[in-house]
Amino acid sequence: MKKRLLLALMSLALLGTLGGCQSVANEEAADIDGEAVTEETVEESGPVQLTVWAEEDNFTMLEGMIESFKAKYAGEAEFEFTLAVQSDSGLRDVLLGDAHAGPDVFHFPDDQLNSLIAGGILEVVPNADSVKAANTAESVNAASLNGKLYAYPMTADNGYFLYYNKDYLTEQDVQTLDGVLAAAEAAGKKFSMELNSGWYMYAFFGGAGMELGLNDDGVTNYCNWNTTEGSYTGLDVAESIMNMIAHPGFMSTPDGEFPTNAKEGTVVAAISGVWNAISVKEAWGDNYGAVKLPTFTCKGQQVQMSSFTGYKMVGVNSYSKNAEWAHKFAEWITNEENQTIRFVERNQGPSNINAAASDEVMKVPAIKAVITQSEFGALQRVGNNFWTPSSDFANVLLEGNTAQTPLQELLDTMVSGITASTVK
Question: What residues make up the domain containing 248?
Fold first, then answer.
């Protein structure tokens, strides 16, 4: 950029000499942003410095992508990259706390997009048309607000589905939750999910067609999980959940404990995501299977369980001092080649259309399952008031509702908390 500027200024000076305006040209050349622009200034500008935040497990892979990026632009600039550890899930809170001290490039899940835009962290992607054309419509939608693209889609696998051990469950068993529970009980094993997480509990209410989402203010929620009308009521769903909890083949455990329970043989089926695929494969070997979520019995009928679909993406800090290069790097690490590398090295499902369509991707049970389940999923767009009330509701049910509070009252209390105003 500075070399081109110097050439432009030299040309301007030449034109000034020819047209009698040399003094004007020299003044412009002598003071750009209050600094004299000389060849010495250009040479001493130094390398482009870019800081990247990512989870540590991805560092080795990112180091390779950095080297290929340097090779790609070797004739245009020198680069100094700094990799710093930052969990994707906690990115928003840290970055909004001090955007100026943040990185140039960062990874984050799609549910943080609106907050990062509102906080002035993300701006519209410069070459949005080419990025949109390269990625699936769903991932582009997840990275957009009001039709404008604000981030670079990276993965399309941040949802959940059903893992199962083929040594204990058949393809027929995993079609229904009743079948999963029965097979687990017959084997003296368990089916598990983190029920007291609203993220997973959505599978029941969303499957029954109930609504949850953000209001236009981008902060508060709307929710009708306590509805007393429609094909299925909130009470119908709550009773279905109670029946699952009471089944001998069920246990509710934190998602992070699933791989250990699978290895120890306690759990033979679970609802989880691709982040556990490698551990589950190690635990169950050739018996490792993964499919879309099953149906569950609600009001005597089979209802397909829903899910929150999730995508991860790469953002560029609007306060970056090297925004142009930051955008180029963000696009580079999310292109077809590097999304394929992510799949091969980290088992992460691509959002890039060509990469996702490859035979190798579709051979991985977890990736295939999350793609299949996405047909029955919805983007997670909820305000912070969703999490505690939904967790509290599930915990009451898991503890047996010892106070014998009517289920409808519990539903009303949960929805009241979810939809509460954030103004104090």
Answer: 161-308+383-418
